[in-house]
Structure formats: structure tokens, C-alpha cells
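S.,

Sequence below, as promised.
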Amino acid sequence: MNLRCSFFRSRSIACLDPCKKISIQTKGAVWKIGEAAGEGHGKNMMTLRKALDQFEDLTWSDAIFIDRRQPINMDTVCLIHDPDDVEDEKVDLPDVAIELGFDYLMDVQSLQSICLNMREQMPDAKVEDIFRAFLFYLKNDAFIVIQ
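The prediction came back faster than expected:
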């Protein structure tokens, strides 16, 4: 099997195989994209494409965490997790996000609002259109207006 791997910090590795299955290994645990990443509510790993495509299925009280050192695209791996699941108040990040080298991006409620706003303006919006609205929101802290 031919795997392409990238290193996240010094303690984790992400591998993408030819079948587009992604896994992240950190401290001996393997996190598979699209599967629950550990025990408990909201610990899901997925690509931004999937999060944007299935935004209605996400829990509004969760948040999105990503590796901010990487460029954001639709294949960016993200963690959907309860932002209040914090062990160390000084760090203010869930342990699972710290282990992965991920930082807070936004709450799921904001993501859902971006997606709903785009669908309201463009009922037949494709995931690429929603991603464009998502990037606009990140850059401008405002919803995109379709002319």
C-alpha cells in the first residue's frame, strides 16, 4: 500500500491512502476520519467538506477545531468537539484538540448559520458554494451576499 504521510508537530502523523481514507495517529491512538474519535459526545473527525455537506447533523453546541498552520480547503481535517470539555483552564482547549495540534476555528452554530444563509440565498447551492461562503465569513466576519 502506498501511503502519503504528513507530520503534525512531533507527536502525530496523518496518513492519506489512495482510497482517500485518512487517519491521524497521536500518542499511540489512531483517529480515523469519519468515525468517533474516542469516547463521549462530539468527538468526531471529518473533512470540512463533510462538515459543510452535513451541517444539519452536527450538534449546535460543539465547536470546530483545525490545524491552523495548514491552509484551509475542503479536505482540511477538522475535529468536531464540545468546546467546554477543557481540563486545563489556562490552555482553554480540549485535550483531544491539543493532542492533535488543533486550534479553535468556530462554533458549530456559526457554521450552521453560514450554511443556512447560503441555502436561503441559493437553494440549489453545492458544497463548493457553501465553502466559498464559509471562507468569506472567516475573512470578513460577515455573511456573503449573492448578487
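The chain has one domain: 4-140.

Coffee later?
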